Amino acid sequence: MKFATKAIHVGQEPEPRTGAVTTPIYQTSTYAQDELGKHKGWEYSRTHNPTRDALEECLASLENGKYGLAFSSGLAATNTVMNLLSAGDHVVVGEDVYGGTYRIFEKVFRRYGIEYTYVDSQDVQNAYKAIEKNTKMIWLETPTNPLLRIADIGAHVKLAKEKKIISVVDNTFASPYFQRPLDLGTDIVVHSTTKYMGGHSDVVGGAIITSSTDMYETLKFHQNAVGAVPGPFDAWLVLRGLKTLSLRMQQHEKNALAIAQFLEKHPAIEKVYYPGLASHPQHDLAKKQMHGFGGMVSCVVNGGIESAKQLLHNTKLFALAESLGGVESLIGHPSTMTHASIPQNIREERGIVDGLVRLSAGIEDIDDLLNDLKNALASINTKAMAR
User: Fold this and answer.
1) 3-class DSSP state for residue 341?
2) Contact call for residues 361 and 296 (beta carbons, < 8 A)
3) Least buried of 61, 176, 253, 337, by fewest C-beta within 10 Å?
4) CB-neighbour burial class of residue 41 (10 A; exposed 0-12, middle 13-18, buried 19+)
5) Higher pLDDT residue, 379 or 98?
6) Is the pLDDT of residue 385 over 60?
7) Domain CATH number, residue 184
8) What residue numbers bound the domain in which 255 lies?
């Protein structure tokens, strides 16, 4: 089956008792057993739930993986992947990562004795140089949040296999519609299903997909033992969102490209980050390993924080809000929102400056979105720009 068909049908056969074509919400915590020691595959909903099972099967199929696991948030999925490690282990991390990922690595797992080295993942040689005797994992985001940098997945996978370490890719920004890291040899894929997979800004969730039976068994054990699972209704909302993922991603990308092209020509904008632009330094790599360029655009506004505030505060359709990937367009300020947990000096070294603005292109009419940005940019004080 092709992608759009799998999103609608895998794990979602008509319910056998009634023939309902939509997977039911099995809103139950426990299940009656026929007799002691005999059950129908479900005992307790932290361990298994039919709605969640359907979601996990569909998620795995979209990434061309064997196994899927659903979680109550993207960070819950990240937390579970870290449970593959032990105190004293070392992880090489692409430096331009989501602020919540940085926070859980530095404020939680470093206290447990796991070590992290952050590198510019645009060049695999940086990862080579960072490998230590105790390195057990390479963690990448690509495209990255918020600078939309591209890591060569195949090159990092080659390194990981050579060193016999685990490779992980956070595929949230691309979604499986535009990129499938398992096809490139990655061991584990992580998602915040809150974003494009759910797609309607009405649910928080996460996912892990892998084709390794050994890793799956360990991850599944920790999913159950730690218990950060989604409720049945949350699982159903993500499953519903997946049905239109292919259609939505096409429109997200179309709108994002038009926005990036508009911003690139605007005098109030110093720099635009979007892998679909020919000016992006890794445009060719993005074309090689992705099936499209996604719906996220970042830009640096001339004039720094004051000019950025004018843009952020004067859009009407782009809502000033955390998150991304919903049908509605959002605009945010990484330095004070998604990446505020990263110390200022580290943010700025990585390019997350105060004038940086991140846009999540929704699926509204593009003319309306461009007019909204045009009007908001017109409000920027020219004196502030000059500074």
Assistant:
1) coil
2) yes
3) 337
4) exposed
5) 98
6) no
7) 3.40.640.10
8) 245-386
| 20 Cβ contact list (under 8 Å, min separation 6) | 14
pLDDT in the model for residue 121:
97
Q: Residues 290, 201: one domain?
A: no
Catalytic residue of the set 152, 170, 354, 372: 170
CA atoms of 384 and 387, how far apart (whole Å): 5
Residue 31 sits in the same domain as residue 127: yes
How many independent structural domains does the chain possess? 2
Same domain? For 70 and 147 the reply is: yes
Note the pLDDT of residue 383: 46
**Any idea what the CATH number is for the domain that residue 342 is in?**
3.90.1150.10
Average pLDDT over residues 87-109: 96
Known catalytic residue: 6?
A: no
Whether the Cβ atoms of residue 129 and residue 136 lie closer than 8 Å to each other = no
Structure tokens at 283: 């445009």
pLDDT on residue 382: 52
- Do 233 and 258 share a domain, yes or no? no
The residue from 46, 66, 158, 271 that is catalytic is: 46
Catalytic residue among 98, 102, 177, 274: 98
195 is catalytic: yes
Give the tokens for residue 260: 């990036």
Q: Point out the domain boundary residue: 180, 215, 242.
A: 242
Strands 188-192 and 206-210 turn out to be antiparallel
Residue that wins the pLDDT comparison between 351 and 288 = 288
